[in-house]
Every structure is written in structure tokens, then in C-alpha cells.
Amino acid sequence: MNSIAWDVVSRATARVSLFAAALTLCLLCAAPHASAQSGSIEFVVHATPSGGIQEPVRGFPFHLLRKSFAEIGREVDASTPKPDQDAFIDKLEVSKELKAWMKKNHSASLSGDAFLHRLHSAEIMDIPEFFSAYMERNSGDQFVGFPKAKYKASDQTKDPAKYAKLRQDYLDAIRHFIDLNPQTIEGVDLGLADIDPGAKWDAIAARRAPEVKRQTMLLAQSKYLVASTQTDLQGQGFFRGVAPGVYYLSTLDVNATIGDARPRWDVEIHVQPGQSTYATLSEANAVQPASTTP
Q1: From residue 255, how far is each of 39, 57, 147, 230 by CA, in Å?
Q2: Does any domain span residue 67?
Q3: For position 293, what pLDDT does the model report?
Q4: CB 218 within 8 A of CB 226
């Protein structure tokens, strides 16, 4: 090999060696930096049954999520088509006034406290089914002072104008009576039981719930899952090497069982670079049961 060729080879070898050394230095510097950026989560879980003492929640699965399980559920609920209530109402064999009332109130139920609280004299007087049920329950001698009709059916033929006026006076008196005695609305739903489509609509709407639950679990355990672990005999759990950010310690839709205690968790956790985050889970920060109040 002549001197020129040897010089070219030597220079190329030197450049490769220099590049390799620089790359090694970068990797050595980056490794501790990346490690220092990761954090960890350490948590302990306790629950207290009624009349008992606090116990660790042992051998229970916990999941680290990027979004709260509750929010994932709301996301799925918003994206899952709901059955068309207006179309359901349109097919009912009831008056057009009652259909309009159902659509306005977004409800197909004609029973219960929530329904009765929506009723006022205007609805009772203007909707044939409500008026009929109210009159069936309240007319006659059941309530002192309930208005009496001053017209007869025969008056409609003999003196239509008089009949119309007396009938309107009667209806106005009933409206006034309802306003003065709102308690007389109670029990009206009993007279609507035969036409109440609430149970049928609830059954239709309930068919959607399993699909929402399935999709929520699927998203939680795939798209939003960071890691999973299980508590030890002391009720402790750990997540190592977690990137900084906001996470959620969740048991998804599974409740722990400690005596009669049935808590589940969906707790927000903040992980800082290079730091351990500690959390204590108990009934105090468990998911609260959904309210059953209408």
C-alpha cells in the first residue's frame, strides 16, 4: 500500500474511533439522566368493616391508569349511541299532549316521586290522561270543597253557549283548587299505571349498559393502562420506573371485600421526576356509591 492510500485509511479509522467514543460518552451521560427522570409509587391499602378494626387489603389487584376510570366511563358513555327516546314515545298509543310532555321532560315514566314533582295544575288540566287520573282520584266527596259541576250533558244541546261557559268555569275552579291544594296531586300516578311506558323504556335503555361497561373495561386495560400490580400481605403495592405525570390508582369496577366493607378506588396520583410518591388508600378516598336520590 502506498503512502497516500495508507494516509486515507488512517484518517478514516481515526474518524470512526472518534465517533464511537463520542457516542459512548453520550449514552453514558444519558443513561443516568433517564433513570433520574423516572419516579415511583408506593401505596398501602386498608379498609374497616362495620364494628371491626382496620385491616390491610391483601392480594388485591391495582392498576395504574393515565385517565381516571370514571372519566373513561364518561368518555365511552358519550360515544356510545343511546336509544332514541323520542322515536319510542312517538309509537305510544297516548294523546299528542302527553307525548309532547314526555319529550319536553325527557322522560317516559309516569310514576314515582320524580314524576309527581313535575306535575302542576297546568299539566293536569291540559293533558287528558293526567286530568282523567286526577279526577278519578279527587272528584266526589273525597275532598271538602272540591268544585262541583253546574252544568248537565243535556245543556250542550239545549244551550251550547251556557254549557261552554259553565264548563269553563268548572275547569277554572278545578285549576284553582289544585293550586291551593297541591297535595291532591299525590297518588295520581296510580291512575296512570295501565299506560305507563316507563318500565318498557327502562328495559330498552338498560340493554346499552353492558356494552358501555365492556368498552370502558377494554379501554382502561389497553389504551390507558400503564402497569398493574397486586398488594402484598401488608396491603402494600409498588410501581417502579414511572415517567413523571398524573396517573390514577384504580381497581376499575372491582370492589375489595373486607367484612361488610366494599370499597373500590380511583385515586389521582402525581409522580415527580426522580421521586417516590406515597399514598394511603382507605374508605376516606374510595369511590363514593352513586346516589339513589332522584
Answers
A1: 28, 11, 57, 14
A2: yes
A3: 39
A4: no
Q: Using CA atoms, how far apart are residues 259 and 51, in angstroms rounded to an integer? A: 10
What is the full DSSP assignment across 260-272?
TB----EEEEEE-
Q: How far apart are CA 106 and CA 126, in angstroms?
A: 18
* pLDDT, mean over the chain: 87
Q: How many helices (H) and strands (E) does the chain have?
A: 11, 8
Per residue in 104-133, pLDDT (tens digit) is 999 999 999 999 999 999 999 999 999 999
- How far is the C-alpha of 204 from the C-alpha of 122, rounded, in Å? 30
Query: Which residue is it, cell 451521560?
Result: 29
pLDDT digits (tens, 9 = 90+) for 81-105: 999 999 999 999 999 999 999 999 9
Domain extent at residue 142: 85-206
**Counted domains in the chain:** 3
Global pTM exceeds 0.70:
no
Cα separation, 176 vs 222, in Å, equals 61
Measured distance CA(166)–CA(170) in Å, rounded? 6
Shared domain for 179 and 89, answered yes or no, is: yes
| Residue 160 grid cell | 251550547
**Are the C-beta atoms of residues 60 and 46 closer than 8 Å to each other?**
no
Q: Which residues pair with 278 in a beta bridge?
A: 42
The DSSP code for 74 is H
**Assigned domain for 291 exists:** no
Rounded distance between C-alpha atoms, residue 43 and residue 24, angstroms: 38
* Same domain flag for 276 and 175: no
Q: What is the pLDDT of residue 142?
A: 61
Question: Which amino acid type is present at position 281?
Answer: L
Residues 194 and 143 in one domain: yes
- Cβ atoms of residues 121 and 179 within 8 Å: yes
